[in-house]
Amino acid sequence: MKLGLINSAWAQAGRETAYGLNQTKRIGFDSVDIFADPLDIEETEIKAIRKNCESLELPILSVACVALGLIDFNPSVRRFHLERCERYLEMVRALGGRNLLLVLCEYVWQREVIPPREQWAFGVEALKTLGESARSKGLEIVMELEPFRESLLNDIPNMRRFLDEVDHPAVLANLDISHLALAHQSAESLEMLRGRIGHIHISDCDGKVHGDLPPGRGVVNFDPYLAKIAEMGLGDQDVVMSIELEYSPEPDKIEQWVEEAYASTKSLMARHGLK
Asked: What is the DSSP string of the chain?
């Protein structure tokens, strides 16, 4: 199983993209995921990122997208975000990537004004459309489970239900181990998503709030999850595990932060025959 890194770790510490890519390769990662918005990045920079990664022999696997407006109650907002996600898919293809990691919004106004079933239906409708677009481009979309109370996809049963209703082979689940722990989802519950997992994130947390710490800095018990991932054969299906580090408390020491995360994650994976 390849071990990757989401490049937002470098960007949030004020490091230039090229520097972060070079450091990612130096540390030993097999791949990189890109966090960038196609509406905020020039085509020349997209080409430069791909060229840099090709010269480093550091494949780009995933591009991350937060599309909160896909389930907005305003049709114009939903249309804009559909078009924006289409631009993301084009960028994934331009970068030579494999999937678009997509984060949906949360229910608004405590579910008291807009019926939750309507927001859910907006999400399903959007992903049917985007799934077909991704398939036509030879790509996949992987949906991220967010452990927050009002998130649409905040546990394994909801993820399974969503994928069932979208019912498209190009729309899969992303597993974020820290998020699973925060949402109190057991490793065994992953069985509900067998055959429908396209990407994995790994990070640690304090067990109470979202953290994205290097594995070993928090309280997550990774072994049951990694054992289940191995048992499900995901390591043999070319599914990539990417480390997600956000907002290091010591940005001037980001290099050590990333190196620590790489070493601890590689050790965990090796223990379960995934690396």
From this structure: --EEEETHHHHTTT--HHHHHHHHHHHT-SEEEEE--TTTS-HHHHHHHHHHHHHHT--EEEEEEE-GGGG-SSHHHHHHHHHHHHHHHHHHHHHT-SEEEEE--B-SGGGSSS-HHHHHHHHHHHHHHHHHHHHHTT-EEEEEP--STTBTT-SHHHHHHHHHHH--TTEEEEEEHHHHHHTT--GGGGGGGTT-EEEEEE-B--SSS---BPTTSS---HHHHHHHHHHTTGGGTT--EEE---S-S-GGGHHHHHHHHHHHHHHHHHHTT--
Q: Are 67 and 104 in contact (CB under 8 A)?
A: yes
Q: What is the largest CA-CA distance in the chain?
A: 52
pTM: 0.95
Band (56; pLDDT cuts 50, 70, 90): very high
The Cα–Cα gap between 157 and 154 comes to 9
- pLDDT digits 0-9 by tens, 24-47: 999 999 999 999 999 999 999 999
- pLDDT of residue 248 exceeding 90, the answer is no
Domain 3-271, CATH homologous superfamily name and number: Divalent-metal-dependent TIM barrel enzymes (3.20.20.150)
* Cβ atoms < 10 Å from Cβ of 48: 13
pLDDT tens-digit series, residues 160-205: 999 999 999 999 999 999 999 999 999 999 999 999 999 999 999 9
Query: To 5 degrees, how large is the angle CA 195–CA 240–CA 154?
Result: 60
With contact defined as beta carbons under 8 Å apart, do 173 and 145 qualify? yes
Domain range list for the chain:
3-271
